[in-house]
Amino acid sequence: MESGMPNDARTPVEYRFSFGPWNISEGGDPFGPEVRPVFPHEEKYALYRPLGFEGVQFHDDDVVPGMDELSPDQMLKQAAVVKAILANQGLTPEFVAPRLWFDPRTVDGGYTSNSAADRSYAWDRTKKCIDIARAIDSKAIVLWLAREGSYIREAKDARLAYQRLLETLNAMLDYDREIEIWIEPKPNEPTDQAFVPTIGHALTLAYASQDPSRVKGLIETAHAVLAGLDPSDEMAFALAHDKLASVHLNDQNGLKYDQDKNFGSANLRAAFNQVRVLEEARYGSRGECVGLDVKAMRTQAGAPVTAHLANSREIFLHLVAKYRSLDQSLVAQFRDARDYEALELHLIRHLLGV
């Protein structure tokens, strides 16, 4: 990594990185055969530190497989096993997310389902997720509202759906007085139209909740692109409200399916601007993680496959160095003169190293 001090001469942020075990892909191509063997889930934790990562992102059933079939005591016993593994490996559980989108009872959404029984299941699962998070010493719950939407507008009462989402947030805040809720917005997939498609929607729910200080946002690069938005602007919006709890960095080639490409691989300048916004706000100075959500290319052979994680981390750090070595006085000069052509050329030259 290139040397360079931050532009305000304060101590540079030392970034902490995280990823979820699902990012070590098992090799299944949805449109073809497996191209690499399955890598056992329980063996993935030993790979974190050698790759430069210390934070682990979890779904609730990553911690406790088959949790719906277990008693509370059995569930907490398995969570204790994972807590011990994390301690042994020197890892930190960044968050736990309720995986509500695979169960048949959540096909039409969990919290916003038209079925009272399905909504009851979603709430029970959420309480279990909070219990699991606390059992492994994590104080953050990520809500990716995957199926909270519709395929046709008339399928649900959208106003009622938003009320139900707010009621769920408040119930979670009541259930645990210390837990934080991080809403991860996405505009589509698996639903055509999501009820919380952007960080603006997420933060509106946060401010409407009974404890806005404990409801924040998590922004994924690809999700912002899929909404036709710029990820760096979405991050800046959350940072302006001091509500960017975490990021999931990756890349996205247009308005396609959620691709989870290596960070910076499709749009390097957009990646630089995400880094720039994070650096300017000194994101990470309070221990926030730089999370990655990147998948190996479908045809990549080997086991385990981890190069996409190491490569994305390396690209991020290179871009940090690029930002820290940028001539900020020249940037200010171009801004003051409104000479944006000169500013753009300066930035591109800097990124190219010329």
Provide key terms for this protein.
TIM Barrel, alpha/beta, single chain, two-stranded antiparallel ribbon
In a nutshell, what does this entry contain?
By secondary structure, the protein is of the alpha/beta class.
What does this structure look like?
With 354 residues, the chain is an alpha/beta fold. It has a single domain, classed as TIM Barrel (Alpha-Beta Barrel), CATH 3.20.20. It contains 12 helices and 10 strands. It has helices at 48-51, 60-63, 72-89, 116-135, 158-175, 199-208, 221-226, 231-240, 268-280, 307-324, 328-336, 340-352; strands at 16-19, 55-59, 92-97, 140-144, 149-150, 180-184, 193-194, 215-220, 244-249, 289-292. The strands form 2 sheets. The protein has an 8-stranded parallel beta sheet with strand order 3-2-1-10-9-8-6-4. A two-stranded antiparallel sheet has the order 5-7. Helix 1 (48-51) links the parallel strand 1 and strand 2. The longest helix has 20 residues, at 116-135. It is globular.
| Percent strand | 5-15%
Question: What is the string of helix and strand elements?
Answer: EHEHHEHEEHEEHEHHEHEHHH
Figure out the total of helices. 12
Rg (C-alpha, Å): 21 Å
Helix-strand layout with pairing:
Blueprint (H helix, E strand, L loop, with lengths): L15 E4 L28 H4 L3 E5 H4 L8 H18 L2 E6 L18 H20 L4 E5 L4 E2 L7 H18 L4 E5 L8 E2 L4 H10 L6 E6 H6 L4 H10 L3 E6 L18 H13 L8 E4 L14 H18 L3 H9 L3 H13 L2
Parallel strand pairs: 1-2, 1-10, 2-3, 4-6, 6-8, 8-9, 9-10
Antiparallel strand pairs: 5-7
